[in-house]
Amino acid sequence: MKKTAFVTGGASGIGAATCRILSKTGYRVYIADIQREAGQILAQELDDAIFLEVNVRNESDFERGLAQVMTESNQLDVMVNNAAIVGTLGPISSLTVEQYDLSQEIIQRSVVLGTKHAAKIMQAQKMGSIVNVASIAGLLGGYSPHTYAACKAAVIQFTQSVALELAEDNIRVNAVCPGAIATPIHTGTTGPEWQQTIKKVKESCIDFQAIPRMGEPSEIAEAVVWLASEKSSYVTGQALAVDGGATAGKIWRDQPEFFKSFHPVRS
Ligand SMILES: NC(=O)c1ccc[n+]([C@@H]2O[C@H](COP(=O)([O-])OP(=O)(O)OC[C@H]3O[C@@H](n4cnc5c(N)ncnc54)[C@H](O)[C@@H]3O)[C@@H](O)[C@H]2O)c1
Prior knowledge:
It is built from eight helices and seven strands, in the order E-H-E-H-E-H-E-H-E-H-E-H-H-E-H. It is α/β, with parallel strands linked by helices.
């Protein structure tokens, strides 16, 4: 029987790249997103993909979407909790409760709900793999707005906690922590101006990490699909940074002059 995957935020960026690779690998893919048009276009482009209109703020949308998966496909092998927004920017002094709650619902609570409903199905099957897309902003400060950082840190801790519970049901739960990746989350646009806008973002991100370029969505998707697959069968409760070395340490060219002399290759 064909393996089945459910990908939230699957209509764009990292989620869409994940759907593409899963589809090529032989999965039936459910693209769960609020972007109906983009999701439907992608579903048509891929082999055996179905678009589901799912708002990850609503628990009932997860229930409805996953019920459709079980009716049509009778199994859920992979759940990718990927949908998110950047959320509120600005200083802590101006943060409102409404802004915080919106970020928390979309970035963090959605992962809890997606995991809860996938786990119910996977526990009955006695197998499954859940991959949560977190961020390096959940590992270290300084990479994002406050609420985004807090929510992504919570996603990582939640991943570890639930992995421990579900291991005995043959369900693995892992997180991927992307660095700076060239997706519409940074531009707010997918229109004709996308190429020009993302080019500027890419130029500004050259010195963000040791590998001197922004990452591509497919480079995160490959890690997500590896964690989703049996190839990572002994990996659970992990948060894998895929970030061009951004969290490996301070890059040499940004060091104060004194420390530059420690550089093993160049002075
Ligand atoms: N791009 C980066 O640099 C980067 C870095 C670290 C982490 N991430 C994480 O990667 C994941 C994917 O982001 P991306 O960069 O591909 O961004 P993106 O904006 O291209 O994709 C996000 C998708 O989530 C969907 N979405 C947003 N709110 C939703 C809701 N309420 N219900 C359902 N779907 C919703 C959007 O419609 C969109 O399709 C996110 O979790 C993001 O936080 C991205």
